Amino acid sequence: MLNSSLSSSLCLFSQQYVAAYQKQFNHLPLTEVDEQWPSPCIVNSFDEQLNEWQPQVIANPLSFTNVEQALGVELHEDICQYFTTLFSESMPANCEHGELSLLFAWSEDDFVRLQENIIGHILMKQKLKQKITVFFAVTDDDNFLLSVDNNDGSVWVERIGCEPHKKLADSLNEFIKSLTPFIYIEELHKKT
């Protein structure tokens, strides 16, 4: 059974992120125009180079069944719920340990790419004989990511290629609830 409270926490965080962004800049978040990478998140054109976007609840059910079958692994329900709740650009956030960016699929095509990246991550973990984790966020240091322990759903910091080394929360839902949106002046705003 999927974790509806995790979905609710993700939706609430995304609303808080958009509200904080709008308060800072008086418009929705921006992304560069890319005709080759459409998304249901695109709301409207901001100018010739930028589109406004906002997270969208995924309407058509997505699944990790193909990933699980290919690897012979059952993914923790929170991992599946996290990546099948929203389409979104990455959303910066603060937690008590620092800044991070939550990762999401931008569209159904991007969900396929995300699945491929997760397969690669799990294969690396298996090759290194490490416990299986699945990433869901990156930090401002490219060598570290935030992941979910596939066995118990706890949230950890891990150095790429290494075992997780710092526990942040007992569950993904608990971790998401602890976050606050982080709005910074992006390169995109320097153009406007």
Automatic annotation (TrEMBL):
Assigned keywords, A-Z: Cell inner membrane, Cell membrane, Membrane
Gene3D superfamilies reported in the protein's UniProt record: Syd protein
InterPro entries, per database record: Syd, Syd_sf
Cellular localisation: Cell inner membrane
Principal location: membrane
Pfam families: Syd
Membrane topology, as annotated: Peripheral membrane protein
Family the entry assigns: Belongs to the Syd family.
Function: Interacts with the SecY protein in vivo. May bind preferentially to an uncomplexed state of SecY, thus functioning either as a chelating agent for excess SecY in the cell or as a regulatory factor that negatively controls the translocase function.
Protein name (Swiss-Prot/TrEMBL): Protein Syd
Organism: Thalassotalea profundi
Gene name for this UniProt entry: syd
